[in-house]
Backbone:
């Protein structure tokens, strides 16, 4: 049910590009990600939860000798992506759909997996990270970019708030939680950096907002720098950006 809710919601969001772009696009953040992952010729790269291809297209355009695959559950959006890739002449880029659980790839397929603003929607994160480790080559790398709760947010206000929109949001993870989850799959941290996203939500997708606020300490709520307009609620979320490497087994 969670996967289907995510699929339905994001098919609609990707069609409404103006508002979705206002929510998520950040050229400085994009450049920081591409610098961190250091894609080289002949690498095979997976963009996990690629959506409308915010990462996928720049990676393919800037690395014509690498092979790029975008993976997601949003079938209609991936059809549009495929058409755009053909129009742009990106022969090194393809898009694949899956069920949201098992990756449709052989073991040790990819040199690099990147994922941006997607993993908080994955209902079985440990299974998904096991799949990541399975399809990564030995010494392959995983780059995660995903919002996190503020350090003071011990009651997880941010998850309650994000779940007001019925789009399958599960949970934001701290850096330590990512290190534990990925460590269990044989992935070790190489480097990391922090960023933030100033994120608008339409009020008609935030029914129950006042009730959620009432359940959490004011200091926690205020730490997200909430700002309301007539039609929107804006929050500032901190973002984990973490590069992992798959450990070599003896």
Residues:
């Amino acid at each position: 049910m969670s996967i289907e809710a995510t699929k339905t919601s994001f098919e609609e969001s990707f069609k409404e590009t103006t508002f979705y772009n206002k929510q998520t696009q950040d050229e400085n953040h994009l450049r920081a990600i591409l610098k961190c992952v250091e894609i080289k010729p002949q690498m095979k790269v997976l963009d996990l939860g690629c959506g409308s291809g915010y990462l996928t297209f720049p990676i393919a355009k800037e690395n014509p000798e690498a092979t790029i695959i975008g993976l997601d559950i949003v079938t209609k959006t991936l059809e549009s992506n495929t058409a755009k890739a053909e129009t742009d002449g990106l022969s090194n880029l393809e898009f694949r759909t899956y069920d949201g659980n098992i990756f449709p790839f052989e073991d040790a397929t990819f040199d690099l997996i990147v994922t941006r603003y997607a993993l908080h929607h994955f209902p079985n994160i440990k299974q998904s990270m096991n799949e990541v480790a399975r399809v990564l080559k030995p010494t392959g790398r995983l780059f995660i970019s995903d919002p996190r709760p503020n350090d003071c947010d011990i009651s997880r206000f941010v998850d309650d708030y994000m779940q007001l929109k019925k789009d399958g949001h599960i949970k934001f993870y701290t850096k330590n939680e990512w290190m534990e989850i990925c460590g269990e799959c044989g992935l070790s941290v190489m480097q990391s950096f922090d960023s933030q996203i100033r994120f608008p939500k339409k009020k008609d997708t935030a029914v129950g907002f006042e009730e959620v606020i009432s359940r959490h300490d004011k200091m926690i709520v205020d730490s997200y720098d909430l700002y309301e307009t007539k039609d929107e609620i804006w929050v500032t979320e901190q973002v984990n950006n973490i590069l992992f490497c798959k450990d070599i087994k003896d």
Remarks:
- The chain has a mean pLDDT of 94.
- Residues 2-149+169-197+239-246 form a domain with the Rossmann fold fold (CATH 3.40.50.150).
- The radius of gyration is 18 Å.
- The chain is about 35% helix and 30% strand.
